[in-house]
Amino acid sequence: MPKPITLSQNNVTLEPLTQKHACDLAEACQDGELWQTVYTSVPSPENMADNIHKADVMADRVAFAVIDDTTGRAIGTTSFYNIMPKVKRLDIGYTWYAKSYWRTQVNTTCKLLLLTHAFETSDYLTVGWRTDIINTQSQRAIERLGANKDGVIRGDRLRRNGVITDSVVYSMTQDEWTDAKIHLQHKLTRYEQR
Asked: What predicted TM-score, i.e. pTM, was given to this entire model?
């Protein structure tokens, strides 16, 4: 199992998610009223502390708060989850950021940090992602990372409104990581040139 660690680059830090982040995250999710989107895992402001507790007690999850180093505040979360040490596979998910951080270097930086840790430090062989079939924005973001679309799993997801839906599943292997890493690093240089 990957251990809780702190990772940092480009004024973004991933640190173990704890209750100390609850107030910042309750504020961050209000930037865009993200919890009102039925196909995401963003908790409402009043449920933030409970959501952090649930992340903490999941045996196959390592959850991170995403910190904007320029403000020192938590602006979202991301996680390793569905961790399978015997087959060296894990998923990245439970990812969300305050809306004002969308289309910035934050997501690219987080994925570069997480993928580097998974493939190079923890020596995992496969990293996966899952997203709701109607969440095309998330699908495009995952594809921009260099992940391959593996297919659709039908009827495996329950939206917060009670609707059963499908997941689009992606993965990246350790062999594909070198090219994907170069691509992500190149993307980050474009953000720096803005």
From this structure: 0.93
